[in-house]
Specification:
single chain; alpha/beta; Rossmann fold; 9-stranded mixed beta sheet; 9 strands; 12% strand; NagB/RpiA_transferase-like; Sugar-bd_dom_put
Length: 318
């Protein structure tokens, strides 16, 4: 019984925090928040009042006056983005990744619309985003993986993250039953002949919102979990790759590099995803991600950036 009460109290606190952030940070009206969260407008007002009592609003004001707000605005202006969210700590541990994921989760809720098709890539940060979504009721949404993925560490894979997000927003979910990388080009063609695979990939190229992690070349999860080899990383480095967006490897100018690994990739085409999506949200933190974050911005691959304070300063100073 005590555990149930603690869970209930935690859920209420999370909802209070979300409502306060939607109202004070993202500028939604009380009625918009009520519609989005399927609660009454008076209840939104009560939650905002509770946020004041708990000091949450005061914390947000302190955050703004500490320079983070100005930093967000400067990055948004410099790179011509639709939005920027900077957490005021450096991402150096799994706990910090969780904080980044929480910030991204709330931002995602603020931009989500009732009939959206959402595409998701993979990785630790997006897994944290999915784990910290406050449940809402958007039954006409659809979540689709942007890349294949089967094997170990399922919690980091695109299919699993898509299922988590669709569950949190009460939407539908499509699954991509294929690995991220086929063994060779012929095997990829075999997978693509399967309608269950090709139809999901086609759907992933016609979305409203894309949620993508940004991977650095040598510190990427794909290397950590042996999805590609060290020799392939070295070859990618030789052709100028500095990291990836949804497993599409790009150079410092944001251009997709020419490399045979892309011939084995089972995923939606990044250029088609960029063209179709109303919003591309990139989520990444830690100084080891600074170059891929900047490349993604320079290449115009993302509209909204969620990152940490150190990467934010790098983006302004370089």
């Amino acid at each position: 019984m005590k555990t149930m009460k603690m869970d209930k109290d935690l859920h209420l606190f999370q909802k209070i925090s979300l409502v306060a952030e939607l109202y004070y940070t993202y500028g939604l009206t009380q009625q918009q928040i009520a519609d989005k969260l399927q609660i009454s407008r008076p209840w939104v007002s009560k939650l905002l009042k509770k946020a004041e009592e708990l000091g949450l609003v005061r914390v947000e004001v302190l955050t703004s006056t500490s320079g983070v707000k100005e930093l967000e605005e400067e990055i948004q202006k410099k790179y011509r983005l639709k939005g920027v969210k900077v957490i005021k700590k450096a991402v150096m541990s799994d706990a910090d990744i969780v904080e980044l994921g929480k910030a991204a989760a709330n931002y995602f809720i603020s931009i989500l619309e009732p009939n959206d098709v959402i595409g998701v890539s993979w990785g630790k940060t997006l897994s944290a985003l999915a784990n910290h979504l406050i449940p809402i009721y958007y039954p006409d949404t659809t979540v689709v993986p942007l890349i294949g993925g089967m094997g170990h560490t399922p919690s980091l894979l695109s299919n699993h993250i898509a299922m988590q997000i669709s569950s949190a927003i009460s939407g539908k979910c499509l699954l991509l039953h294929a690995p991220a990388f086929a063994s060779n080009k012929h095997e990829k063609e075999v997978f693509l002949k399967n309608p269950l695979v090709s139809q999901v990939i086609e759907k992933s190229e016609n979305i409203d919102i894309a949620l993508v992690g940004l991977g650095s070349l040598w510190n990427s999860t794909i290397l950590e979990y042996n999805y590609i080899t060290v020799n392939e990383i070295k070859d990618l480095e030789k052709v100028g790759a500095i990291g990836d967006i949804a497993l599409h490897f790009i150079d410092a100018s944001g251009r997709i590099v020419s490399h045979p690994i892309h011939e084995r990739l089972i995923a939606g085409n990044l250029s088609k995803i960029r063209k179709s999506a109303r919003i591309m949200m990139g989520v990444a933190g830690g100084l080891h991600k600074k170059e891929i974050v900047k490349a993604a911005l320079v290449g115009k691959w993302i509209d909204i950036l969620v990152t940490d304070i150190e990467v934010a300063h790098y983006l302004i100073e370089n």
